[in-house]
Hints:
Order of helices and strands: EHHEEEHEHEEEHHEE
Oligomer: single chain
Distance between the termini: 30 Å
Low-confidence stretches: 7-13
Number of helices: 6
Strand order of the largest sheet: 1-2-3-4-5-7-6
Mean pLDDT: 89
Number of strands: 10
Radius of gyration: 18 Å
Amino acid sequence: MAHDDRDAASESSQDAIGIRPLETIAQIQEAAEVLRRVWAGERDAMPGNLVRALEHSGNYVVGLYDGERMVGASIAFFAAPAARSMHSHITGVLPGLQSRGLGRVLKQHQRQWALDRGVGHITWTFDPLVARNAHFNLRVLGARVSEYLVDHYGPMDDEVNRGDETDRLLVSWALAAPPVPTPPDEHVVATVAVPRDIETLRRESATDAAAWRVRVREGCLSRLAAGLVVGGFDDERGYLFVRP
Length: 244
């Protein structure tokens, strides 16, 4: 399951929003149901028994609350001890409450939680075709792209991913470092454009959406193979490639 802030791009915050660790089985089952609603059609976006196991073993398992109502959830687990890293597996906010900056609220909470436990990096994946998530991950948070993963999760049957290959970009967020800035124009040696709204395109023209998948995959892989790295993201030009 890909990490997806759904929708993380807005930077506003809400006074009524709170984040709480999920400790009871009732809370965990509620979180599993919230994530099923976010990834509509996926029967077990994050099974409750797995969420419970991750929580009980000390990983990051939290609910996002609007008052007393759970409206989102986020789950991350520790990576190899020597890496001092944590992988953020899934983050979702209920439909109708997206575009309120809740993804950023969760990410900042996750950052502080990780720092308090001696974790220096958080990694996650996102679909390279989703421009708003590229904007949030690379421009707002200043994370670095470390790898392009082809069809990383295999076929998925939720309404977000059904009928498409699950290519992902793996990013790493250095928690104690300043955000990686967008590179100046003189450092950009290549770009790979993405559609402005891939979700609408998938609904209206699956053929065009599939063509974008191939175009972005081939563009990114060829530039990475040539020794370039993703230096940032521009809302008009797409991914910005620079020399390392």
